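Progress note, sequence design subtask.
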């Protein structure tokens, strides 16, 4: 329900979930990159992990561990990228991962 006592529509709920996951993912990436914070990275849905953030493969391993710590086995990063070819992995966007996470989890679990 929203603050007025009405049930949120599934579209509004999904958008809110995506915002929450985007924010949490930005913090995770900032931690992995040892950045001062996610604000300086400017992470948005079409930010690319490799080209824009310059993540290395070891950084993806750290990200996979952070995702599992936050959302448990429901979010299996290795499984997510297993079906992708190299070009798709290299072009992976934050939005693609956010969409995967929202589709696999109850975003509020663990909070």
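Output:
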């Amino acid at each position: 329900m929203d603050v007025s006592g009405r049930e949120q529509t599934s579209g509004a709920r999904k958008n809110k979930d995506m915002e929450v996951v985007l924010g949490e993912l930005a913090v995770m990436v900032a931690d992995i990159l040892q950045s001062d914070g996610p604000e300086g990275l400017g992470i948005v849905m079409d930010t690319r992990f490799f080209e824009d953030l310059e993540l290395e493969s070891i950084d993806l391993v750290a990200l996979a561990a952070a995702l599992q710590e936050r959302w448990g086995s429901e979010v299996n990063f290795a499984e997510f990228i297993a079906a992708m070819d190299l070009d798709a992995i290299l072009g992976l966007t934050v939005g693609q991962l956010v969409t995967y996470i929202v589709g696999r989890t109850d975003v509020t679990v663990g909070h």
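Helices lie at 10-32, 38-41, 57-71, 77-82, 86-90, 94-104. Work on this subtask will continue into the next period as scheduled.
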